[in-house]
Amino acid sequence: MSSLVVITSTLYGDTFGVAREVGDLGAVLEMQYIPPVGTALVVHFQYITPDDLLTELAIRSVVIGHGQVVPQFIRDTKVMCGVTRSVIVRFEGIEDSLEPVAAHVMH
Asked: Per residue in 23-74, pLDDT tens?
């Protein structure tokens, strides 16, 4: 399952990304830029609660590696879609106090 997320960094700013293979310990993030190993990030997930409220979960993360996401091979045309670079992050904990993320970034 993939999720559209906002990724914030004090060094690199805010950007959109796609979180793939999200697990208890971390995730693979497709992003507009590839920060170096050791970079601290905050990954912002939004979800709907059972009460139909939009809620945000911000998870402190650190980049532990780089990789590539290879889209599915299209058999009919024998064409490979573009390969995107990604980062592998380890989740460190939940943000205690959320600073508002700019409206233009979240929407």
From this structure: 999 999 998 889 999 999 999 998 887 888 888 899 999 999 998 765 555 4
For residue 107 the two structure tokens come to 């929407």
* DSSP track, the chain: --EEEEEEETTTEEEEEEEES--SSEEEEEESS-PPTT-EEEEEEEEE-TTS-EEEEEEEEEEEEEEEE-PPPBTTTTBPPPPEEEEEEEEEEE-SSPPPPPHHHH-
Q: Residue 20: name the closest of 78, 76, 84, 82 by CA.
A: 84
Q: Given this model, what pLDDT does residue 14 score?
A: 92
Residue 8: CB partners within 8 Å, gap ≥ 6?
14, 41, 42, 44, 101
- pLDDT of residue 78 exceeding 80, the answer is no
